[in-house]
Each structure stands twice: as C-alpha cells, then as structure tokens.
Amino acid sequence: MxxxxxxxxxxxxxxxxxxxxxxxxxxxxxxxxxxxxGINMMVRPGERRAVLGSNGAGKTTLFNCITGDFAPTxxxxxxxxxxVTVFPAQERIRRGLRRTYxxxxxxxxxxxxxxxxxxxxxxxRGRFSFKRPRKSDxxxxxxxxxVETVNxxxxxxxxxxxxxxxxxxxxxxxxxxxxxxxxxxxxxPAAGLSPTERAELIRILTGLPGHVGxxxxxxxxxxxxxxxxxxxxxxxGRIFKEGKPAEIEDDAEVQALYLGGxxxx
Amino acid sequence: MVDLTPDLAQGRLRQDRAWVERVPPGYWVMGxxxxxxxxxxxxxxxxxxxxxxxILGIISLSLMFLAGYGGMVSLAQMAFAGFAGxxxxxxxxxxxxxxxxxxxxxxxxxxxxxLATVFATLVGWLAVRTEGIYTIMITLAxxxxxxxxxxxxxxLFNGFQGFNSVLPPQLFGVDWRGPYAFYYLTLFFAVGxxxxxxxxxxxxxxxxxxxxxxxxxxxxxxxxxxTAHRVAAYAFAGCLAGIGGILLTWxxxxxxxxxxxxGPAIDILIIAVIGGLRHPIGPFIGAFIYVIxxxxxxxxxxxxxxxxxxFQLVIGLGFLIIVFFSPDGVLGLWEKFKAARNRDPLTGESxxxxxx
Lengths: 265, 356
Description:
Largest sheet of chain A: 6 strands, mixed
Shape of chain A: globular
Shape of chain B: globular
Largest sheet of chain B: 2 strands, antiparallel
Distance between the termini of chain A: 37 Å
Mean pLDDT of chain B: 85
Structural class of chain B: mainly alpha
Low-confidence stretches of chain B: 1-13
Strand content of chain A: 15-25%
Strand content of chain B: under 5%
Strand order of the largest sheet of chain B: 1-2
Helix content of chain B: 55-70%
Helix content of chain A: 25-40%
Oligomer: heterodimer
Strand order of the largest sheet of chain A: 6-7-8-3-9-10
Number of strands of chain B: 2
Distance between the termini of chain B: 34 Å
Radius of gyration of chain A: 19 Å
Order of helices and strands of chain B: HHHHHHHEHHHHEHHHH
C-alpha cells in the first residue's frame, strides 16, 4: 500500500489500491469501556481471514465498525482504497461489502426467495418500483440461483418463520452473497449448526469465487482454520497475533489464551 | 443447468399463461356477483350499504397497507381522506360559494388528491421517527388537531358547518350520485385500489416495505433507505385514503368536521382490525360488517323490544366477539377454517397444499 493510505478523511478513490480492507488505528469506546483499541488490519482482495478470540474480545464490534453500524471513535477504514470511515452502512453495501449476523436478522413474514430477492434488489436500482418482477427478471434469476447455491431450493416458497435454524443460517449466507459482493463479513456462521450443516457451510465458503474475500468470526476452530488462509487473534479489543492457520494452531500463547477463554463461550 | 422442480416449472407455466387465466376462480365468482347484484337489491342497499362499504373499505385499505405491510398503525387516515374531501370542496363546487373556487373537476380532484398525498407525506415524515404506540399517538394527535382546526377555521374550512352540496361531476351525462351509478363508481375504485395494493405487495416497493416491517435494521444493512420507504408508504396510503375521502364526500354530498373527528378515525382502525390486516380483502370485509352493524343495530334492538339508542352496544359487542375468537379478524377465522379443513382427520397433520 502506498503512503497515500493516510489517516486523513480523504474520500478520494485510489486506483489500484492494494488492500480490500484496511483498518488503521481503529478504536471504539462505549463510555469508559474500550471495546476496540488501536486495530490495524490489512486484508488483500480475495483473502479469507478468520478472526478468533473469546467472547468480549471485540470481534463483532469490529464488524460493526467495518460495516458502518457503529462509527469508530478514532481511526480510518478503507474499502478497496476508498476511505469509507464516515460512510453510512448502505453506501458501504453498494460498494460490495456484505455481512451476516450472529443472530439471524431475516424477514420472517416473507418467503426464502423474497428474502434473497430483497437482498439482491437492495444493491441495485428500482428499490421503489411499483412493478412486479417477472420470473425472467435478472434479479429474480440471481435470487433463484443463490437459493440453489445454499441448498434451499426446496423451501424457496416457505415463509422464513417456518425454517429450521440451520436453514435460516444458510439463508443468511445466500443474502450475503447477493449483488456481486467483493468482501463479506461472516459473524459466527457455524454457531448452532449440526455437523452435516457445518460440512455444508465449509463447502459453500470454500466454493466462493476466488475474488471474493471474507473475514469470518468463528468459535469453532475446526471450521475457522479450514476456511481461512490468515488468522487474526483478538483479545480484550486488541489484536495480539496474526499468522497462517498452521502457525496459529501451534502457537503456545494462543492455545493458552484461547482455550483459557473458552469457558466463557 | 438449473434443475427445474415440478413446483417451479408450474410457476413458470403459470407466468406464461394470459393474465385472464391466472385470475383465481373465486375472483370471477365475486366479480359476477358484484356486477349483477344491482338487479336484485334496493337502491338503498346499493347506495347506503354497498357504496359506503366500498368507501370505508378503501380508506381502511390505506391503513391496512401501512399497518399490514409496513407495521405502522396510523390513526390519521381519516384525516387524509377528509383533507382530500375538503380540498375538493374548496377548489371545486359547493353551496358555500364565498369559499369554493368553482374550478372544473379535472383540476379540483387531482389537486385535492395531490394535496392529500402531500399532507400524508408530511405526517409520515413526522410519524416514522416513532414506533408502535408512539406512532399511534402522534397520528391520533394530528387527526385530533386537524378536526379542531377544521371546526375553528371559518376562512378556509367554513368551521362547524363545513361544505354542503359537494356533488360529483355529471360526466358522460350520468348522475353519479344516483344509487346505481354511485354503486358502480365506488365498486370501480374499490376494485382498483384492492388490485393495486395486491399488485404492489409483490412489487419491489411492497416487498421492501414488508422487509422494513420485519427488520428495519437489516433492510438498512441491505442498502435500503428505511425512512424513505416508510414515508413513501404514507404518501401512497394518503393518496388511497384521499380517493376514499372524495367518494365519501360525494356520498353524503357534504364534508364537515364530523367526518374527520376522533370517532371516525378510530372506526377506520376498527374496520381494518375486524376485517384483518394480513390481506387487502380484510378492510372490505371489515367495512361490510361495520356498515351492516351501524345500519341495522337500531332496528335489531327495536325488534327485540329494547331501546334503539343502545345501538352502539350491539356494534361494540359484534366487534368484541370477532376479536375474541380471532385476533387476526375475519381473515384469521378464514385461515383457521382452511387449516382445519386441510387437516387429516386420522393423523391430525396437514395434508399439504390446500385446494382453496
């Protein structure tokens, strides 16, 4: 990354930026509580990274800062070279950033296909259109394909409130994949899944197109290490270790801390 | 590449058929009944029962659209309707010639609808900042303020008297206030409003509104402007209510503060709730029950040898019974009936797709 990646609030897009996501000295305080402190993180386009850490380590807060749900107290966030620190959430979405949520935030009164269709429509024009989409509508086709990608084709017309927990998690992923994402944040996608569903999740994640990078928060080390090529360890709102999955797995300090913090999960 | 399941293939097939073939049989039956009914019933039923049902149905439909799809309960729908009626009286013709401008109907009516939509947009813009009970309170406050304003303002709204002799235009040489003409006029707008709301419910705007109802935070995270969607819903609902308001003004040939009082505002909510908020047909069912009760409760009591002035009690009891047995209104009862029919008597389990 060039030295243009300054901490100033410049919103100019820089061509050929080296990083998909770049966090410089990001911190977030809730009153006196420092949830995040001095986070520096560079993620290349197409890179798959796992963020690990015990509960309260600040992982979800980090996601919220990246997506724009919270404004960071200090620091700058760049998305593909563009300073998005002060951008509202929907502006970041339109630039190709997606996320899934720890607890399913779905539209319970709508069908599976409608949920995915809404996700596709959110990043395109015609959100206020009064005209019904036809089956041949390009977005409807995309939604159909995404529903098939996550193996929900059989329940496409089912109301979300009638889905199993695992199916709801899969739907979350289909929604995150909508509208040509460039980078996705997965917040504990494997939580509460059965072993079969976990295997399916790993298949979906590893099957994503090569240019789509992601950060995954995951407590299940097995899943996290299999679907990532870099691992960031967080503790008390700070990054304390980064490395390849194999290095992290073997690191004595990580094992002590992570396993030590595991009981409060 | 795509393995078409029979279900989807059928869906595609359905899409390919002409729209006439896609209309469910029930709609054809209902359509024929509504078209030929004037041959069998009295002008009173045409004008007073059916006409009023359609009008109140349209105004309640505007509330159903906001509450059922958008999760926003507004008590200001009658105020929007009344506002449109007032604007039509002010810009068009009435007996109050000192105020009414006498502009032709093709200016006065669109202008009245436009102003009602603007009014609803402004109210929506205020109301969407609140949720749940606070939305009800703020819209009730606006409805009450509008009622008192019309009663006290003589320069524009002619105070307590309001406007009388507000008549529909004699278009195509037809007296549109004649019972049959008025029946078909209100039927036309009721069917139009119903079809429009049903159509929009599956269009991106309607789907997004339902998304906003279910999970506003997620909608924002998907790139939607939640506030703009809610305000737009108010604008659309305001326009619908305005159409109802203009028809209501023609029906009684007058508009006065009594039309936009707190009572009528709450009646619209009652109609929508007893009919059901889940489907656009609900408000029309609710309106029919309301009109029947309101019209015949007095006779019913007198026939029983009781005092006719207690008719409100009968109306209240009727509503109580419906809501007691089904919090989702009459539509909820229908759903229950369908589910019961669909249940296998041996296993007690659902038999899958219901033919109804």
